[in-house]
Predict the structure of Glutamyl-tRNA(Gln) amidotransferase subunit A.
Amino acid sequence: MTLWNKPAHELHDLLVKKEISATELTQDVLARMDAVEGKVKAFLTITKEQALEQAKAVDEKIAAGENISFLAGIPGAVKDNICTKGVRTTCASKILENFVPPYDASVVTKLQKEFPVLVGKANLDEFAMGGSTENSGFYPTHNPWNTECVPGGSSGGSAAAVASGSAIFALGSDTGGSIRQPASFCGVVGMKPTYGRVSRYGLVAYASSLDQIGPITRDVTDCANVLNVIAGHDDMDSTSSFAEVPDYTKSLVQDVKGLKIGLPKEYFVDGMDQDVEKAVRNAIEQLKSLGAEIVEVSLPHTKYAISTYYLIAPAEAATNLERYDGISYGERIDGADVVELMTNTRSKLFGEEVKRRIMIGNYALSAGYYDAYYLKALKVRTLIQKDYTDAFEKVDVIAAPTAPTPAYKIGEMISDPLKMYLQDICTVPLNLAGLPGISVPCGYSQKHMPIGLQLIGKPLDEATLIRTAYTYEQSQSFHKEMAELGGAEA
C-alpha cells in the first residue's frame, strides 16, 4: 500500500485500525524521500534514525492498547528556523551552519507530546528573508510540480516536502506570506494564524512584530488538527494571546450559507496573471453557489503595504541580527581584532539578501531618517489595520489571490529584488494587521502549476476561515492531486 500520498487523517484512521504500523508508514515516507529528495532538495537535515525510533515508540503504544493522538506516528517536517533540541537548526545560513539548540521551540514541545515522527528540518530562504527559497545559504529547493520552478518562500522546503510526499505535514513561519505563498505555489494548504495565537518562543526571529508559526498540510482537515496542537498561550512568549483556543475540528463543516465574503478590488492588481485571476474568481463564484454572499469591500491603503512592510521588517531584522557577531555563538571568521572579526564574520557568512535587508533596516532606523521612514511606516501600518477593521464590520471573511502569479522559473527574479518583493502584495497586509489567513488550492495555470485562494479572517477567528476553506475544498478535488515530479516547461 502506498502511504506517502495520503493525508494525515486517513493515515491516523489506518493506524488506529491497525491496518498499518507507524514503522511501515515512516519507512514508506522515508523511501519516498530517498526517491525525490535529489530533485526537490526540501531538507537541510534529515533525521532518519530518530524518525524510526519515534515510529517504534508509537507502535509500542498501539500494541499496549493505548489510544493515540491525531499526529502520533505521522511523519512531519519542521522549518529550519524553529529550534529543535539536539538537532541542527541553521536558518539556512552559513553563520549557523553547525548550531545545535539546547532547547526545543514551544511548538516543537507541543508536537512532541503528540508523538509524531519528525523526519527532518526543511530548507528556507536564509533567516526567512525571501519568497523563493533561492536565498538559502546552502541550495535552492525545487517545486515538485515542476523542478525548474521555485517552490515559493520562505517556507519553500516545508511546502515542497508536503507536496512531494517527503512529509505528511510541516510547520512553517510566516512574516510576510512565507507559509501561504509557498502553499499556493506547491498546491497544498497553508495557514498563518493570528499574531500571538501560536507561540514564537524558539522561532529564530526575523521581524518580531510580524513572525508567526503555522501549519502546512495536504488538506484543511489536517490543518485544523495541527493547529489544535500548536495554538494556545505560552508564558515563554510575551506576545502570546491569552484567548481561549477552540477545537478547530468542529469547524470542519460544509456550510457557508449566509456567510458574507468580502472581495477587495485592490487585491486584483495590475499585472496579475490571468490564470490566477480566473481561478480565484471561479473559486469565489463557487463559494457564492454554496450559499455565501459576496460583498465588494475596499482596502485603500493596500498599495502602501509593500513599502511599509519593507521598512518595518528590515528594521526589526537589523536589530534581531545584531546578535550574530562571531563571538556569542555561531560560526566566526577571525580577524586581527574584534572589529575585523565581526566584519569578516558578518560580511562573509551572511548571504546577499540578508545583508541587503540589514542595510535597509539600519538606514531606516538611522538618526536622520527614523521619522521620515520607520515612524511613517508605523503610522501607515495603523491605517492598513483600520482598513481591515472597517471591512470586517461588513463581512465575515475576505477572499483574494494568495500570490499574483503561479510559481516562476528558478533564477527568473533573483537578480531583481524589487520585482521579487512585489510578489508579496497579496500576503504582507495580513502580517502588518496581525490577521489570520489561509491558502487553499483553487486551480491550475495553463501549464498546470497550482494556484491558491487566500481567505482572510478577523483576529482570532481561525475557526470561520477553516469552515469556509473546508466548504470550498470539499466541493472541489484540487487537494487530492499530488505533484508528479517533472521538469517540463513552466
In short: The longest strand covers residues 437-444. The CA atoms of residues 123 and 157 lie 4 Å apart. The chain has a mean pLDDT of 96.
